[in-house]
């Protein structure tokens, strides 16, 4: 038997002799053993088994008080597990005459069924699956994925399909960032035209519940609320009059608005134990006159804590445990830290550390008196009280400090000061392009952070997915499933082993080249100088908010693009980048061709491979485009451009414009399967249309020059 490729890696797997013929599975027997704690109706789990076995109506459901596998079938046995304290542990045993799944809870039964799904998918040959025994349990109790709806709105059915896939890899939590996609009744002006309906919100929560996934809502309590402060009705709440980023903590209306929105949102999430109130990166703390005076008297941290603790107390009054991003607590004076109740759950985010020892760490936040990157040079400049406070967390031992620092140093810091801590790596964030996440960084960051979390007994991991550059969801599955793997299995396997497992388990192929392709695409210099943070446009435009019109995006991005082209012409790295572009384009072209063969061989999830293929073609196009922009600029500087060079540029531009049409069509076809129509058109404009306008401008100018010379 070929070795099974199961994700996450089970704690114990013992191969047995023989096979089970799934055609013998005529009955599903639920054995309660006097246990009344089954969390869901057995009918739901039975339907899941029927789906996995491909037998919708042929398998009968029976319930018994005790387990006795006296005939062929599948036996679901609720009983305490002997070898592990976790009620989420399960036993999956495939015998020649039956399949047995045991756990102390419905959740564990569900996980056992999902493992059986993977076994069947990989070994179902002539209806025979191998006999094995698996005993398994999670390394971390909470294993979550962050879904950010504010910049990328999926179709509702696609969102449900995504939840299905996450549940198959034993993800049990969604940190759901609605922003303006929540159907607020109290302040309807905040709602996007793409907002979920009340029915959809309730349906989404119920759908997650059926798959043993808890939804934790996010409602930012003071900042990252551009969707609110951009409206003139709420402009008086701004901390900085010309910025829609942050509200004033001393304006009574800020807290009043938060509580009204909170009351409405929490009414949909009664089953959630937690509620996330944001609270990170307050860039404008202490800017308005009232706040500035308070900072002068009491310090930045007190201004922050007074407000954030008030929000936490309000959340606790409704029976929820508040969650908060933890960066503002690093470098606050110890006496301020003691004011924070220990029941607050801190999410410690770190998107850059990629090993147990690193060359630098971040200290402080936007509200700290001292902040910055700490390395062997800058550590000499920090105040002695801060040095003493954090040295034991930074120092990896064995004389490596200060040349090297502990990776993820603040995990133990948060735990030492009494917080239940959840760690947060990232699938994509600032610094990524819009084509593909930087998997050279993110997979290491995710796997190492999960291992550190399990080793230090953190409460869990929630992997963030900031879609500000609109990377298609199908390009993020390696990151999501990497988090599912390592948050469950801890340090059982290496990252390179996971990659081999992923391609077999998720795509049903034996070729790891898609990982190599995504790594190259994710760090490619393709057109980075033309792809700055236009994703921030929705936060800076005070009037229009999703969905944008094409005209809005042209007005916003076209000047940026022209400025970046000009800046590129003056950069010292210009020749280095231009020299690398032909090789990049060739590699991207070869990658796109190789993916075609893999799509034909793939057994599952072909859509994500098609997105990788499109990303490779787009990278090839962008490499040619950057080179073309530079040639055009050089030619325009020539007083009398030679006809030959004019013709070459015109021909190159016309070919690139044809490419844009083809790429736009392919992008529309693929994205239409996952995103709502408005988001698809938005992506087309951001990906290709503004560059196309620049190319047409060059083409018009060169044709006029040629006509004039003729």
Question: What do these coordinates show?
Answer:
The protein is an alpha/beta fold. Helix content is 46%, strand content 13%. It has 21 helices and 19 strands. It has an eight-stranded parallel sheet. The protein has a seven-stranded mixed sheet with strand order 1-7-5-6-4-2-3, with helices on one face. The chain has a two-stranded antiparallel ribbon with strand order 14-17. The longest helix has 33 residues, at 677-709. The chain is globular, with a radius of gyration of 28 Å. The model is unreliable at 526-555 (pLDDT under 50).
Shape estimate? globular
Determine the N-to-C terminus distance. Answer: 75 Å
Number of helices: 21
- What is the count of β-strands? 19
So what's the oligomer here?
single chain
> Which ranges are low-confidence, i.e. pLDDT below 50, for 5 or more consecutive residues?
526-555
Kindly provide the radius of gyration, computed on alpha-carbon positions and rounded to a whole number of angstroms: 28 Å
Structural class, from helix and strand content?
Answer: alpha/beta
Rounded mean pLDDT score? 87
* Sheet with the most strands: spatial strand order: 10-9-8-19-18-13-12-11
Reported for the largest beta sheet, the result is: 8 strands, parallel
> What proportion strand?
5-15%
Determine the fraction of residues in helical runs and give it as a percent range.
Answer: 40-55%
